[in-house]
Write a structure and sequence with these properties.
Blueprint: H1 2-10, H2 14-37, H3 42-52, H4 57-92, H5 98-106, H6 113-124, H7 135-138, H8 145-148, H9 151-175, H10 179-187, H11 192-221, H12 224-229, H13 238-247, H14 251-275, H15 299-324, E1 327-329, E2 332-337, H16 340-343, H17 361-392, H18 397-408, H19 415-426, H20 440-463, H21 469-476, H22 481-492, H23 494-510, H24 515-518, H25 526-535, H26 539-564
Antiparallel strand pairs: 1-2
Helix pairs in contact: 2-17, 2-18, 2-19, 3-14, 4-5, 4-9, 4-11, 4-13, 4-15, 6-9, 6-15, 6-26, 9-11, 10-11, 11-14, 13-14, 14-19, 15-26, 17-18, 17-20, 17-23, 19-20, 20-23, 21-22, 23-26, 25-26
């Protein structure tokens, strides 16, 4: 045992591995431990009793939990249905405009979820809670409460955002189904419907299950959409309830709800992973491309359905948001149009004297802060993820396995709960260091912790394609570990790391669930300003800020795809 430990410590990769382990312990394990410890004193134990077993439990836990599960289940089912249909149409049929549909189907995840929620509110908002009604109400259409507020619009909006996850997963699985399998089945006389149901569907069932789980977990933990479309009518989910507790100073109850939200997400993902762990072998010794189904007279119908889905999730929300920012009166066409909400100076007769978003110093500061935060988190996270992924593959299993596990843990933690954990750990003096709450660096810590899974997975995939002969040659030439990583492996894997960095950048630029817990007036960010403006009734300003976030996120996503120089396997003709 001692000999094995000594041998492990002498490996060149051990020092980088220990550094990565220490960083992950501080960023991931520490905040979670701090979150638990914060609920173990007398006040914490009282908070546990209040949340779990008291007259307050129904309002604090059980109703929000039930609402979260309903929203998550609806989002998961609808996302996998829509995503699977689009994947089938793009990968296995001769539908026209397949590549266009495929690209549009991946964009919604790059758009902030609250962008779609704001677009929905601009169209369907009614007068139930007062304030300016939506476009339909202004045209005389009576919008039912169930369509304007609560579970249904929350679920539909989340589906429009997360179906792209299911599309990507299922499309990749369908692209791996060998064409020879489908051809062999057809030669036996099986109908196309039978081939689809008995061969193609079972082959991609695990992928469909994974898509469902991803959308379910994201739907349960999302904060922005329930806050915008649910809170006005007191429709609470776990994420909005815990945010409300912490933001009002009731931190102990908020920490308890955070722990419970983490447990719910972890149980769901663990159970789903066990259920979808079985897979069917669909790739044979002879590589063949999946055969495309000739749709015949059904081509217009399938194309119309596919275009309707991607248009509703990608194009229409952007159009609605853009139009609303030019309307002088909120969501009404009879007040004329104006550029005030973009470039106007302070005018007491419009929006209580608020300036346009492009000339407002606070929003300009938030643009710079958002870009700086996203770039800083992307660089630090990718550096840490790269070192962790490289070390995990070159150290004994007990080290590499620990690295991989710690790198995966943040994926199980909803953003609001992770924000609460970071506050519990770094929002107070620690080991002689001052409290970081209200500073830029607590945002960086939270962002890096949340983004580690993306950085680790993309780095591991990129490094897996590099032969270790390059490292051996560098070692023979006298190159040290850090020089080899920075001057050889990092440039060779640049395409993969660029894609990972772009994903982290976009996630941080559009994310609200994490930063809403950590941001303060001293550290303004675009996502939080958009939420605050929407909550205060400044619809045009909120939509304009959201459009800025959307443009930046989509531009970075498309640029990264171009720099990577790779096409998705389902996009091959």
């Amino acid at each position: 045992m001692i000999g094995s430990l000594t041998a492990a410590l002498r490996r060149p990769a051990t020092l980088p591995a220990l550094i990565a382990l220490a960083a992950l312990a501080v960023l991931v394990a520490g905040p979670l431990a701090g979150l638990v410890v914060a609920t173990l004193d007398a006040d914490g134990r009282e908070a546990w009793a209040d949340v779990v077993a008291s007259p307050l439990s129904t309002a604090l836990l059980w109703e929000p939990l039930g609402n979260s599960l309903v929203v998550g289940l609806g989002t998961g089912i609808a996302s996998v249905v829509l995503g699977s249909f689009l994947a089938w149409a793009v990968v296995l049929t001769d539908m026209p405009l397949r590549r266009t549909v495929g690209v549009l189907a991946t964009i919604p995840f790059a758009i902030p979820s609250f962008a779609i929620a704001l677009a929905w509110e601009s169209v369907f908002r009614n007068d139930r809670i007062g304030g300016a009604s939506g476009l339909l109400s202004s045209l005389g259409v009576q919008v039912p409460d169930a369509l304007a507020w609560g579970a249904l619009p929350v679920t539909l909006t989340l589906t429009a955002h997360y179906f792209s996850l299911a599309f990507v997963v299922v499309a990749a699985a369908l692209a791996s189904v060998g064409g020879d399998l489908l051809a062999a089945a057809e030669l036996t006389g099986a109908s196309r419907a039978r081939v689809a149901l008995r061969i193609a569907l079972p082959a991609v069932a695990p992928a469909m299950g994974s898509g469902f789980l991803l959308a379910f977990a994201e739907g349960v933990s999302n904060f922005a959409v329930p806050a915008l479309l649910g809170l006005p009518v007191r429709f609470q989910t776990l994420s909005t309830r815990l945010y409300g507790a912490i933001s009002t100073g009731d931190q102990e109850r908020g920490f308890v709800l955070s722990i419970l939200l983490v447990l719910v997400a972890a149980v769901v993902l663990w159970t789903g992973t066990r259920l979808t762990s079985r897979s069917a072998a669909t790739v044979t010794g002879k590589p063949t491309r999946a055969r495309r189904i000739r749709l015949g007279v059904a081509r217009p119908v399938v194309l119309t359905g596919a275009l309707a889905i991607v248009a509703a999730a990608t194009i229409l929300p952007a159009i609605v948001l853009a139009i609303s920012t030019f309307l002088r009166r909120t969501n009404r066409f009879d007040g004329g149009v104006t550029l005030h909400y973009w470039t106007g100076a302070s005018d007491p007769s419009i929006a209580q004297g608020m300036r346009g978003v492009l000339v407002d110093p606070r929003i300009l500061e938030a643009i710079g802060g958002t870009v700086l935060l996203a770039a800083t988190v992307a660089v630090i996270t990718m550096a840490l993820g790269f070192v962790a992924a490289w070390s995990a593959a070159r150290t004994p299993p007990w080290i590499g396995g620990t690295l991989a596990s710690l790198s995966y843990v943040p994926f199980l933690i909803p953003g609001v709960a992770l924000g609460a954990a970071v506050i519990a750990q770094f929002g107070r003096p620690l080991l002689g260091l001052p409290s970081l709450y209200g500073t830029f660096w607590i945002l960086v810590i939270g962002g890096v912790a949340a983004s580690i899974p993306f950085a680790f997975q993309t780095s591991r995939a990129a490094l897996a394609q590099v032969s270790r002969e390059l490292e051996d040659a560098a070692a023979i030439a006298g190159s040290g570990i850090w020089r080899t990583l920075g001057r050889i492996l990092l440039p060779v894997t640049a395409r993969g790391t660029v894609g990972g960095s772009a994903l982290v950048f976009v996630t941080m630029a559009r994310d609200l669930s994490l930063v809403v817990m950590l941001v303060t007036p001293a550290t303004p960010l675009l996502a939080v300003l958009a939420y605050e403006h929407a909550s205060e009734g400044f619809t045009q300003h909120a939509n304009a800020i959201t459009l800025i976030i959307t443009v930046v996120s989509v531009a970075v996503t498309l640029l990264a795809r171009r720099l990577e120089g790779r096409r998705s396997p389902w996009m091959d003709a």
